[in-house]
Fold this protein.
Amino acid sequence: MKSLGDVLLTADPFSEIVMGDTAIVRAMAESGVKVVSSYPGSPTPEIAEAILSIPVEKRPFYFEFSVNEKVATEVAYGASIQGNLSVVFFKSVGMNVALDSLVQLSMMELMGGMVIILGDDPGANSSQNEQDNRHLCRLSYLPLLEPATPTEVYSLFKEAVRISRKWHMPVALRLTTHVCHAKEKVSFGSLPSSQEALQSLFNPGNGPYVPITSAVFPLKRKALQKLDQVTYDPEAQAVELFTPSKTNKGVICSGFPYLSLRESMLKAKEPVDVLKMNRVYPLPEKELLSFLDQHEEVKILEELDDSIEKEILAFAYQSKTTCKLLGKQDLEDWIGEYTPDKVNEIMHKTWPEIFPKSTDPMKDREAVTPRPAQMCPGCGHRSAFYAVKKALPLDTITVADIGCHSLGFLKPYEMGQMLLSMGHCTGTAAGLALGNKTRPVVAFIGDSTFFHAGLPGIINAIYNQHHLTLIVMENGTTAMTGHQGHPGSGGNVRGEAPKIAIRQVLESFGVESIQEVDTYQQAELTEMVKKAIASPGFKVIIARHPCMLKFMRDRRHKGEVKINLVDVDQNKCNHIYECIDTFACPTFQRTPEGKIITQHDLCIGDQSCVATCPSKALGVKEEKTS
Amino acid sequence: MKAFNCYLIGVGGQGIGLLAETILRAADHAGIPVKSVDTHGLAQRGGTVISQIRIGAEVFSPIIPPFESDLILSLELHEAWRALMSVSKPRSTLLCYDAFWQPLSVRKGVDKAISANDLLEAGEKMGVRVLMVKEEKLKDSRMQNIALLKVVCKENLIPEVKQEHYLKAMEDLMQGKTLEVNKALFLA
């Protein structure tokens, strides 16, 4: 077995089956990237996993998880104006956090070059929305490239580097979930023969870098001029044409939907021509116009919003082309990922005589039971929600935040009735608490989110004297995205790091009521919450338990683990179903006769369930080795 | 070669990802073009996880077009039922490891539990060949994926991919004692 880290550091050209998120790391190494920063978020954490598969002393560039996406962007910017090629990557909604600084970058001379990798999520596979970041790239004057496959992720990253270094401007590479996670064999080039050290070449004379009042206009003019030059860049491969038959019908598309379209075309009654854009901002106007002129009807197949459609319509109008343009037809065209089935439906709607509808070959399919994501066996959040719920009156308002604990909104816990964004909970809870003397307001926040964007809301609650209870669900890691460290975890991507204690942070802010408890101490946590909601002011409970998924994995890596399996004493069980209906650890299963049994493949022997049984029927019976 | 599509389904934590990666690499060792995609992120926390593998030269998307799965591999009964009732096509094969991780509504007694028999009967009705797998003496439930792979190989369920290719793929992905015990199970 060759480790991924070794594969990525192979000096000579090679090919390997990799996902898009891995291919991009090899592209970084080949391009001479010097600094990479990020905040974890799906669908991009696997980029970090690939980087971290290389031992720290062998990494060809500096890498860090910054505290949030805005800071990550600033770190990459600082490195770039020192003359170092830098990369920042984050998920779709991370762009919103980064934007305050990101929006400035096109006005700056980025001497080393800088690439922004966006992990957009059409289909909302792991996100709270489907936001189309092409809008924000336009807003920020960022040239934008869109790969469709891992091979293109690799090649278009290099193209992004080329553009960025040529014009000293930021360039965005927009990946979507199934481009990040698709796997195929990719042919790579060779690594640079020597590694340059980090540069320290910052010179204010390359700027100005302070855009204030009238200094803004020349900078903005320069940014717009660069965009113009990118539009007509003779070196660019901005489009690819697939013209099987020179028919009078054509399709314009980009990214992952292109692959879905090609699938539909395999079953089409006649071929249509396709123009696939590699660069979607600024649009390759010349190539697009010539494609319109060669066809009588052109469909713009565009995932999510209609930004390309609007732009093409505008310049088609000006060019007086006779080509008929077909865009989005109804609201459904704006929603969801453009998978092969969705695209086939859209193409059938557009040209039913060419694209047959795909019909289900089976009759009488029966219903299926949904299986939403749930907290893992032994999860400290489960114990916390179980205990907190017992303390709260029915009309309590509960506010969720982003992280594994978001899953508390699901049955049977139903803790968390609203969710906006990273760190929103304290601010939203403060608004809910205004003038509200009867219904307690309780907010939940995870530890990574606490540092990412949670602090301003907390400081605001102290400063403006809001009345609410905040429960910090501290599991010692950024669990949802794959157990990355954070400022409170004691480790960073290079090893040990200063551990910033949440309690000390809160004390330094002047929070007077701070309680701490291990969430497995359910009775104690229930009492704490009862007291907290009965008293005025801003109260914090730190409900702590390590992420058990990580804890068990770490233990297994060190060697075999003995697990004390929990069993149900059938003589004591009174079939109250507290373990299934209220505590709801997935380990508890129901037999056709209504007996409760434990699924030993799932039980990790944590015993957080034991105290919840009113009949005292739960106990440790046997041991397994794991 | 026309595309051959393999749809893998299970519950987060069961090892679908490793099974998919093994098949993907085995197909590559057999010299066939192959693409795949896995579920990552939030759904991995105890939800349904799906991997899709597409083998053959005439493949663009890693996502299988509707009703074109030639082979469904499942590590769990309820998930096998889900695939059978949503993506299966006539004259295809469903191979399921006989394990149950009940979804909440089944545990609560709201929805009916799915048994191996339910799958066999429905398969019969729908024209899908259903094969069940169970290794009685399996020491570690995390090896259920390799127990399933053993049958994929023995029954020749993926065209052109042979035992030697699967073994090579396992050697790419595992090492030490893990490789040893999984290989022993695979070859038994």
Summary: Chain A touches chain B through 67 residues (CB under 8 Å). The two ends of chain A are 23 Å apart (CA to CA). Chain A has four domains: 4-231, 239-350, 380-549, 560-625. Chain A has a mean pLDDT of 96.
